[in-house]
Amino acid sequence: MRLERLIEDIGVVDVRGDLGTDVTGIAYDSRRVIQCGLFFAVRGFTTDGNQFIPDAVRNGAVAIMSEDQSLSVSPVHIRVHDIRKAMAKVADRFYGTPQRSLVMTGVTGTNGKTTTSYMVRSIFMAAGMSCGLIGTIRHVVGGHGVTSLNTTPEAPDIHAFLADMAKEGDAACVMEVSSHALELHRVYGIDYRAAGYLNLTRDHLDFHGDLEHYLNAKSRLFADLPGDATAVVNLDDPYAGHIMNVSRHANILTFGMDERSDIHPVELNLRPDSSVVAFTTPMGELHCRLPIPGRYNVMNAMAAAGICLSCGLRSDVVKRGLETAEQVKGRYEVIDSGQDFTVIIDYAHTPDALERVLSSAVELAKGRVIAVFGCGGDRDRGKRPQMGEIATRIADVTVITSDNPRTEDPNAIIADITAGVVRGSIHEVMPDREAAIDRAIAIAEPHDTVVIAGKGHEDYQIIGTVKHPFDDAETARRILRTKQ
């Protein structure tokens, strides 16, 4: 595609070189540049893409796009006001605007994005519409999954995925939209048919600074919705009013336990392995059996239902999709090795998520709840004592351990956690995560519930700067086998 076509209306400041040049590929990583490629020199948090312009040219770049002044090493240099917004627009155009071929849906929130996205995909599939997925655990294109590196990738990767989805026959796409992606304009210019807002609680403050900036990042998804789109909003969340106010162009559909919500439960029977629920919706009542247990998964199901109903899918299709939704790895995942107590793996790594999963366990458990959790290193320290308080307040027994300590001392992280524990609570400290899981399983009695929280689907533990193989589910299964 010719450069002059690619850079139309993207905020160009000035150009040096021939815009008649043809571009055969785009990249923001100099190592991925191909012959006759366009390289986006993006300033990152640890490296500056402008430093890699010579490498990009050596690898075949015929054009460079940057916010910086023209550099003589590049054949064509395009300076723009905002490199990330420009990159998103160029990527969409380069891949032929594939989003137009797909029903685009997005889900954002501190907790619940992955499960809700899987439910949305299941509903579209129940409607006979192949649905792509971009998310935390994997990206799915044409029914084939690949492991994801970021919840929401960089814009060129997103549009490449969308192009592959359209080529492979997908009719829809559901995307987990992270606050990082919104802040960094990775989804800039994507027209969502429906976007779901789940919740906002303390997380990522090491990146956003405070909750106000975190909320502002989430708000961008809804402020940019077009007039024919729908914002599907959790009315129970304290920031619901703000999200509805910023969704000034879009239709509003609310969900929640609050009976003022457009979608809310009129019957609810929570079971250890499922939930039987009847929702009221603008399209009538919807009765279904959710195969994924937990009260908060009922909320996720209402969000998914709202998104899909907003896209024109029928209630019977929504019911079928929810009832056939797959168990998401590491999301309230029950580990059954024939033991006489319950073991649950969950990704809960924020105060709110930990409170939700432990409260659900208490609600469903016939015996004690035993919690195993830690906090990640090089991340928001403020949530550590909060999580210590939550765990020791709700669980009968808590084993405090390491999560991904990264470059911090695990014992220092644990000290931050224990600063918040409830006085008189039963808790132990075991920095070695495998030993902590072993301890929790060893003390579990019939009908108890062991909740291993924090890492969920992750199959590694980051110690220092190295990823070491470690999977909570596989570790629990191996320990359970040795106990039998």
Key phrases:
alpha/beta, UDP-N-acetylmuramoyl-L-alanine:D-glutamate ligase, Protein-Tyrosine Phosphatase, Chain A, eight-stranded mixed β-sheet, six-stranded mixed β-sheet
Explain what the structure shows.
The structure is a single chain. By secondary structure, the chain is α/β, with parallel strands linked by helices. The protein folds into three domains: about 5-95, Udp-n-acetylmuramoylalanyl-d-glutamate--2,6- Diaminopimelate Ligase, Chain: A, domain 1 (3-Layer(aba) Sandwich); about 100-325, UDP-N-acetylmuramoyl-L-alanine:D-glutamate ligase; about 335-484, Protein-Tyrosine Phosphatase, Chain A (Alpha-Beta Complex). It contains 16 helices and 24 strands. It has helices at about 5, 55-60, 85-95, 115-125, 155-165, 180-185, 205-210, 210-225, 240-245, 295-310, 315-325, 350-365, 385-395, 410-420, 435-445, 470-484, and strands at about 10-15, 25, 35-40, 60-65, 75-80, 105-110, 130-135, 140, 145, 170-175, 195, 230-235, 250-255, 265-270, 275-280, 285-290, 335, 340-345, 370-375, 395-400, 425-430, 450-455, 460-465, 465-470. It has an eight-stranded mixed β-sheet with strand order 9-8-7-10-6-11-12-13, with helices on both faces. Strands 17-18-22-19-20-21 form a six-stranded mixed β-sheet, sandwiched between helices. It has a five-stranded mixed β-sheet with strand order 1-5-4-3-2. It is globular, with a radius of gyration of 24 Å. It starts with a helix and ends with a helix. About 55% of the residues are buried.
